[in-house]
Amino acid sequence: MVFATLDMVDDQIKTAKSVLKGLELREDGCVYVIRNSIRWAFYVHHGKLAYASHSLDSFERLERHLRGLSREVPALNDKLRSQLRLIFDDPNPDNAKYKVTSEILCTEYLALLWLVNENYLPKPLASKLVARMAQEVIESFLCLEDGQFIEKYYPHLLRNIYCKLTTSQILDVVEKRLQAWYSLGPTICSPHQCLYLVSQTSAARRMSMDTVQRLGRILRGFNFYQLGALLGKDPLMLAKQLSPMIKDGSILLRDPLPPFDLLPPTYRLSPDEEEYNINQLSETLEEFEETANDGISSISQVLAHGSPKTWKVVCIDDSESMLSIIRSYLGSEDFQVTLIQDSMKALMKITSIRPDLILLDIGMPNVDGYQLCSLIRKSSSLKDIPIVMVTGNKGLIDRARAKLAGATDYLTKPFVQSDLLKMMMRHLI
After folding, report:
1. pLDDT (tens digit, 9 = 90+) per residue, 49-68?
2. In angstroms, what CA-CA distances link 246 with 180, 203, 388?
3. Which long-range contacts (CB under 8 A, 24 or more apart) does 229-236 make?
4. What per-residue confidence (pLDDT) applies to 338?
5. Whole-angstrom distance, CA of residue 229 vs CA of residue 142
6. pLDDT per residue as tens digits for the range 117-128
7. What is the pTM of this model?
């Protein structure tokens, strides 16, 4: 059976907007748009958009949006989100359970179907989730420069449809949001830029020192999308509120981390075009300037809820150098880090500490990580603590063994600080 036809776009120059509008004329199915090494997937049903995704860590996008919905559905907690990743986010597509389907149907959509079928996610909220994720994807897609687009068409394989959006609906919302993102440039040029608080003294001129300290705990290299998931707020709203402190140097912005550095920026125009667009957006700019002070007040209110917590993290690894790296990555302000080299003594120490999270190396002498994880899960007082298995092995068998042993998640060596902090965000913050 032939699953796809390939439509190579000729020398005609297209815009991302025209490609989206062309979806209205497509038959039911999936349109893949390939551009700049990124595969964009648009699922069409009766001329309307049923789902949208792109190939850059789509499961991270699902996890963030599920985290936002967890305020409405507590069952969508970190334990369930980790379970989803272990089930569906297969690191080796060649071994995927649904080999043919996985080439055509986005993996995170399979996870979404599972959540609905297992009664974790009501269908009305599934519709809301799909709409939010589609909006985020299309915001990035519309930032692509004009050029040649390669399109592939596949027959329809969506087993359930929770949301149907017209192109006019999408463009009306997304183009206004992109104008707002553009108005924050050139300082803020991507929702995936990473934020760090670098000057508490400067920030304290705008808010109380208590709020500054809370802000410093949050701004540890997370991007605007991740901050939105952490705080339950629209990333665009947070960018607007934090913009004054970014401009005065209180907050440092760094370029998006891979793979998100491949996505097009929200601010990228020639000088002449910039001048023209700034004039066209003058009303929007004035609106942002008028509400800047209100934004600082709002961010203070967002951070005011709940008292700061120092998270207790236990790291078990026979490598002293690896333990040192983890300690340096986590720092000393937000995390109380306990390092354990001897796996034979680890269970007793964990029982007395009662940590909030355990980082557990797999390859240790005497008692290996799998065995220790199983022992921890047998303890009534420790069984619910998140356990992240840390290993240099990337194979499917190792991942399956970690799941059987009771691991909550899986972190592959070598990893950088942002990888570890993302894991902290997933299970603690």
Report:
1. 999 999 898 888 999 999 88
2. 16, 10, 34
3. 229/64, 229/65, 229/67, 229/68, 229/425, 230/67, 230/425, 230/429, 231/302, 231/303, 232/68, 232/71, 233/302, 235/191, 236/177, 236/180, 236/181, 236/191
4. 93
5. 23
6. 999 999 999 999
7. 0.77
